[in-house]
Amino acid sequence: MTAIETRTTDRGPRTARYDVERIRKDFPILHRTVRGGKPLVYLDNAATTQKPQAMIDRIVRYYSEENSNVHRGVHYLSEVATAAYEEARGTVKRFINARSEKEIVFTRGTTESINLVASSWGRQNVQAGDEVLISAIEHHSNIVPWQLLCDEKGAKLRVVPVNDAGELLLDEFAKLLMKRTKIVAFGHASNALGTINPIRKMIAMAHANGSIVLIDGAQGVPHLIVDVRELDCDFYAFSAHKVYGPTGAGVLYGKEALFDAMPPYQGGGDMILSVSFEKTTYNALPYKFEAGTPNIAGVIGMASALDYVSSVGLPNIAAHEQDLLTYATARLQEIEGLRIFGTAAEKASVISFTLEGVHPHDIGTILDQEGIAVRTGHHCAQPLMMRFNVPATGRASFGLYNTREEADALVAGLHKVVEVFR
């Protein structure tokens, strides 16, 4: 499965040689053409990543050979499906270095994971006059659930500002940590700017204040080694489809003691031990938070995708993506009138930009005619767009299979945009 020569270290496989062409062969969609025969240049990885054949095959095998509902069944297929589903929980546990599989709850994705914490932990612990602290660079999924909670409870939502480079102002963060700050929620990395936040320092500062911490890891897990025990975060959420897995599956990591004390998020099958009209008793962790038939195929596919990423090695992926980020940034800066938003010292492989005199949607449309897929719009980060006084940006986001040649294609496409509009 791996496409590189590796040597083992304590941080996973590393190599001096990254064979991106071999990796690309593992992703069937990358070999198709679009828009009248143009080779696909896929640079929309922050929205969703493409899928390796190994993951696709694993889902097909589940539906072809193992399909059954999980848990409680005594027949053969149910036993096989349950084993695969629970093995996936072990895969996730190892991938983020959780202490126990009880700390791994399967959800539909990062959005549901954050809503689970806001609804269950938040309703139980946040009262009128308390405060929830987020940042100015959050995705809407890490803004709206906290607004709903604050509106319901009479709490206050506080926001950490950012500088012109898109970096959080840690001195302001420290000032905003108050006695009544119950929870701090912020992204590992920004989907709109690529900024990688200093989360270890921020977690330590929040804990020193007596606040708990949730990390939106949707843009962290695909690019960075995540060790939840080392980070000491209280909750960490991510989505399978951002890390080469299927849509509709995700993870909420939570410390066992916190999960134990939280009420269920939803009621239904599998989250119960017994039900009567007088009283219901709830299942053990993590099943207390997994009501109803889960996305069994999605969870199994997610585990396969994480195994694929591990086989390539996150240190190798990170080095490759940083090379692409550096190269593409330099090439884009050659284009007159192009402005890059998000120039933090620590960045994931995301470049958000505008082109003078051209609306981002027009940029995206012309690039699409050249076979180049980028994202245009506010990237579910409207408050951040307001901070930079732009309605939208174009965004190129790179993954483990992208190449310098594709960065060159992006630059060539943008020159065509300039020709059309100037």
In the predicted model, the low-confidence regions spanning at least 5 consecutive residues are 1-12
Spatial gap, N to C terminus: 47 Å
Helical percentage = 25-40%
Can you tell me the CATH architecture of the largest domain?
3-Layer(aba) Sandwich
In what range is the share of β-strand residues? 15-25%
Structural shape: globular
What's the CATH H-level homologous superfamily of the largest domain?
A: Type I PLP-dependent aspartate aminotransferase-like (Major domain)
Could you tell me the number of beta strands?
Answer: 19
Average pLDDT score? 93
How would you classify the helix and strand content by structural class?
A: alpha/beta
The CATH class designation of the largest domain is Alpha Beta
Strand order of the largest sheet: 6-12-11-10-9-7-8
Radius of gyration: 22 Å
Largest sheet: 7 strands, mixed
Question: Under CATH, the topology of the largest domain is which?
Answer: Aspartate Aminotransferase, domain 2
Q: In words, what does this structure look like?
A:
A hairpin with a 4-residue loop joins strand 13 and strand 14. The chain is 39% helix and 18% strand. The longest helix is centred in the N-terminal third of the chain and has 21 residues, at 76-96. With 422 residues, it is of the alpha/beta class. It has helices at residues 20-24, 53-66, 76-96, 110-125, 144-153, 170-176, 199-208, 228-231, 256-261, 296-312, 314-332, 360-369, 382-387, 404-421, and strands at 7-9, 12-14, 33-34, 38-39, 41-42, 104-107, 131-135, 156-160, 181-187, 212-216, 235-239, 250-254, 272-275, 280-282, 338-341, 350-355, 372-373, 375-377, 393-397. It has a seven-stranded mixed beta sheet, with helices on both faces. It has a four-stranded antiparallel beta sheet with strand order 15-16-19-18, covered by helices on one side. Residues 1-12 have low confidence and may be disordered. It has 14 helices and 19 strands. It is globular and about 75 Å long. Helix 2 runs antiparallel to helix 10, helix 3 crosses helix 10 (296-312) and helix 12 (360-369) crosses helix 14. The protein has two domains: 7-52 and 313-421, Alpha-Beta Complex (Aspartate Aminotransferase, domain 1), CATH 3.90.1150.10; 57-310, 3-Layer(aba) Sandwich (Aspartate Aminotransferase, domain 2), CATH 3.40.640. The N and C termini lie far apart (47 Å).
